[in-house]
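Work Package 3 (structural annotation) set out to generate three-dimensional models for the target panel prioritized at the project kickoff. During this period the team completed the workflow that converts sequence records into discrete structure tokens, so that structures can be stored uniformly alongside our sequence database. As a representative example, we reproduce one entry of 70 residues exactly as it appears in the project archive.
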Amino acid sequence: MNMTYYRINRLRCKRCGDILEYEHKTKDSNPHMMMWCKCRAVALDPSAYYFRRVGNPEDYEDLSEEWKEQ
């Protein structure tokens, strides 16, 4: 089965311009640390297995990078 993992969880707040980013060194990393932009419009909860975003989808741009397992 092909699995997708996030190598870099990254989003940009379109309101304040902040970029929230977490880079995973391995596919097994799982930090569970919520990050908020400075205007508190959007947040990121990074994981290698999912990418949870908080906020209105019109307020952020997804800049994540994925691993594809063969």
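The chain has one domain: 4-68.
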